[in-house]
Design brief:
This protein is of the alpha/beta class. The chain has helices at residues 8-21, 27-39, 43-48, 56-70, 75-79, 103-112, 130-138, 151-163, 207-210, 213-216, 225-237, 253-262, and strands at residues 81-84, 87-90, 120-124, 143-148, 170-174, 187-192, 238-247, 265-272, 278-285. The chain binds S-adenosylmethionine.
């Protein structure tokens, strides 16, 4: 990447040329956004001092960001963090980038849970920890258990857990879905955003190329596999009348709802995401007593 000189406006012009040449949507907006985020100043600061000098290392950093952005890498990985429900989470290629759609699971959970109670919450498929750690931050007396099969994802979640001061209230466990828990867990809530994309399904640019496949894909011939694996033990691990909240892919809410009802759950509601897509399926355990394994 060649810049005309070590000034903000020269970097901006170069970015605009590159983004225009690849037909990026709104290249002028993105050129400014990338420059501001990369070099850590606001759009107002850029407007006030467009000709301000930049250092050689800032030029190199911006050239690298531009190249990675053009290749389709998510902005959250470039920045190393992502906002979710008003908090920042460290993210990198070891975890899925938290999606605003998943905030509907937080809304659904908070509508059901009493913040004055000592609750126990398990998050299956923890990833960055955005769901569980948000709930623990919002519910000051709750304890959490975050489970993920990926040790790499757990390392990121552990970093976020420490940064949010939640280590004392959160246990991180490597394992598959509910396998690490005993049937006497008496959980108040299980929350899960399992992988639900079938191979070949349409996805946004860069998603399949950069985000962990373990977080994205389920088997083509078994699209509900992760849900069924969770449902096999969910009732036994929840307290009587405990809650189960699943994130689902577009067009899958009814199938997941029916599978859960067959496993003994009562369907409570399905919340839509910001785009109006049914996203959070809310269920309640109907078992009166916790069954043994
Ligand atoms: C869609 S991501 C969700 C991450 C995070 N909860 C979120 O909402 O952003 C699914 C997560 O499930 C994990 N996962 C995949 N298979 C699993 C399994 N058998 N048991 C536990 N976790 C699993 C992946 O490693 C990934 O972190």
């Amino acid at each position: 990447m060649h810049f005309e000189g070590p000034r903000r406006d020269f970097l901006l012009d170069a970015a605009l040329r590159v983004l225009t040449s690849i037909h990026s949507e709104d290249p002028a907006w993105w050129a400014r956004e990338l420059l501001c985020r990369c070099l850590g100043f606001t759009r107002v600061a850029l407007q006030m001092a467009p000709k301000a000098a930049v250092s050689t290392s800032e030029q190199q950093q911006f050239a690298s960001w531009l190249q990675r952005f053009v290749a389709g890498e998510p902005l959250a990985y470039l920045e190393g963090s992502c906002g979710f429900y008003g908090r920042e989470f460290a993210v990198d290629a070891r975890v899925l980038v938290p999606r605003p759609d998943s905030e509907s699971l937080i809304e659904a959970s908070l509508a059901l849970l009493d913040p004055t109670q000592a609750l126990t919450i398990a998050d299956l498929g923890l990833g960055s920890g955005c769901l569980l750690l948000t709930l623990l931050a919002e519910l000051p007396h709750a304890q959490g258990i975050g489970i993920d099969v990926s040790a790499a994802a757990l390392a990121v979640a552990s970093q976020n857990c420490a940064a949010m001061g939640l280590t004392a209230r959160c246990q991180l466990v490597q394992g598959s879905w509910l396998a690490p828990l005993s049937a006497q867990a008496h959980l108040d809530l299980i929350i899960s955003n399992p992988p639900y994309i079938t191979p070949g399904e349409e996805m946004g640019p860069g998603v399949a190329q950069y985000e962990p496949h373990l977080a994205l894909f389920t088997a083509a011939n078994d699209p509900l596999g992760p849900y069924l694996a969770i449902l096999e033990r969910a009732s036994a691990c929840l307290r009587a009348e405990g809650w189960l909240i699943f994130e689902v892919g577009a067009g899958r809410s009814k199938q997941v709802q029916e599978a859960a009802m067959s496993a003994g759950f009562r369907w409570v509601e399905t919340r839509v995401d910001l785009g109006g897509v049914p996203r959070a399926v809310v269920l309640q355990n109907q078992a009166q007593t916790c069954r043994s394994r």
